[in-house]
Design goal:
Radius of gyration: 21 Å
Low-confidence stretches: 1-15
Number of helices: 20
Order of helices and strands: HHHHEHHHHHEHHHHHHHHHHH
Strand order of the largest sheet: 1-2
Number of strands: 2
Strand content: under 5%
């Protein structure tokens, strides 16, 4: 979920000997419950007070680590991770808000499917966050006469998550693996079958939803959507700033330079973008404000859960690739998928008496246990789509859609109406084809 810039802090967080009391996981659970239930229980109150709730629950964890565990440096590392995360998410949000894609007046189901496939490929070139921020607005516009919740959900499934499984640029966990010695093209070579199966399968299911939706639309709407026109890109100068942000992902020294480059690119993009482009995109800072406050609380409160996992990963019984896939995925769906990836990779290598911090051991692990690394990689990336907080772009896409007056599922609605019935069957198929005794890949 967070940007892979603070590599040393992430490694310190995973390797650090911090063993919090399990009860300290409760603030994280409480925040998740608030995000899921408060819009139902008292929507007006939640809209005005969610920053206080997120900050208050986060402070409980901060005080515990500083005053009880005497491990304040752990929270400083998390603060660094949060700043890096917001720098990436926020800068991409601002820069993409200055790029207006005028779509052709045509949103037939096959066009939507092609758009989603292009988005899945693009996610590996500019990251799932970059692809999501660049494409979500034109996606809404090209379906504006009949856009529904499932349009937003499948965009999150495919473009914001599963699509970015082929390169280390695609998703932060894979970038961490690259920095630990996994060759750049290793994921593409070993995970493309699962990527293709998941992406094409989800697009097929989307088509099954979208085709009846298109046919139910009035003749006037269908004619309007198939009217003549052409695609046009305004604000293309911001592609230069987008390139600066993506390049900054790979800048690790000196500390703070990468974040400074991202913020600088965002500021320059904002003030050089013509006002009509911002107006055409209905650009405001409201979505990034919501994400910033909620993830401030999430980053703080999830620390005990991550540290407890890191301290007890060896007790999880990771003796089969199937278990590795599902356990990595289950925790990536609700926790930070980057350190979860590292924690399970360290545990899997440790089971074979190999060290995560040894390049030679990493090569030996890939040579003898490649399917375990595939399981960890797919679990971390794919399961990010299970919840709104499973991956950074998810909540951002939801916020932008709501700003555009598109109805989106609630936290629980997303999980139980879409993620569980649609995603879990795909994950079962992937686990059987790739990690069971009957596997064919």
């Amino acid at each position: 979920m967070p940007d892979p810039l603070p590599i040393l802090p992430l490694l310190a967080a995973v390797a650090g000997a911090v063993n919090p009391h399990p009860v300290m996981i409760l603030p994280f659970a409480a925040l998740l419950l608030c995000i899921a239930l408060m819009p139902f229980i008292h929507k007006h109150w939640w809209e005005h007070h969610y920053p206080k709730v997120a900050l208050g629950l986060g402070l409980i964890t901060v005080i515990y680590y500083v005053a009880v565990l005497r491990h304040g440096e752990r929270m400083l590392l998390v603060a660094h991770e949060y700043v890096s995360f917001i720098a990436l998410i926020g800068s991409l949000f601002v820069v993409s808000g200055g790029i207006h894609i005028r779509v052709k007046g045509e949103a037939k189901p096959w066009v939507n499917c092609l758009f989603l496939f292009i988005g899945a490929v693009l996610a590996n070139l500019v990251g799932t966050t970059g692809a999501s921020m660049l494409l979500i607005r034109p996606w809404i516009r090209m379906n504006k006469y009949r856009v529904t919740s499932f349009h937003i959900v499948f965009f999150i499934f495919i473009v914001s998550n599963v699509g970015g499984c082929l390169t280390p640029i695609g998703d932060p966990p894979l970038f961490l693996g690259y920095l630990k010695g996994v060759p750049f093209w290793w994921v593409l070579e070993h995970c493309w079958e699962a990527w293709l199966l998941a992406v094409l399968g989800m697009i097929a299911v989307f088509y099954a939803f979208d085709r009846p939706n298109f046919l139910r639309a009035s003749a006037a709407v269908r004619e309007r959507e198939t009217a003549s026109g052409s695609w046009k890109f305004d604000g293309t100068r911001n592609l230069l700033f987008l390139g600066v942000i993506l390049g900054a992902v790979f800048v690790r020294h000196p500390a703070g330079l990468s974040e400074a480059l991202m913020i600088g690119a965002a500021v320059a993009a904002y003030f050089t973008t013509p006002k009509p482009i911002h107006e055409a995109n209905d650009f405001t800072f409201a979505p990034i404000k919501e994400v910033a406050w909620l993830f401030l609380g999430i980053f703080a409160t999830m620390v005990p859960a991550l540290d407890y996992l890191g301290s007890h990963a060896g007790q999880l019984g990771l003796d089969t690739e199937m278990k590795v896939f599902w356990l990595t995925g289950a925790l990536s769906a609700t926790l930070d998928n980057a350190p979860t990836y590292l924690a399970f990779l360290a545990a899997a290598m440790g089971r074979h008496e190999l060290s995560l911090n040894s390049a030679a051991d990493m090569q030996a692990f890939m040579a003898a246990h490649d399917h375990e690394l595939i399981a960890i990689s797919l679990g971390a990336v794919f399961f990010g789509a299970m919840t709104y907080i499973g991956n950074g772009p998810n909540f951002m896409v939801k916020a932008i859609a709501e700003q555009a007056k598109v109805k989106t599922p609630t936290f629980s609605g997303y999980l139980f109406k879409f993620a569980v019935p649609i995603l879990l069957p795909f994950f079962v198929v992937v686990s059987l084809l790739f990690f069971s005794r009957w596997r064919i890949f």
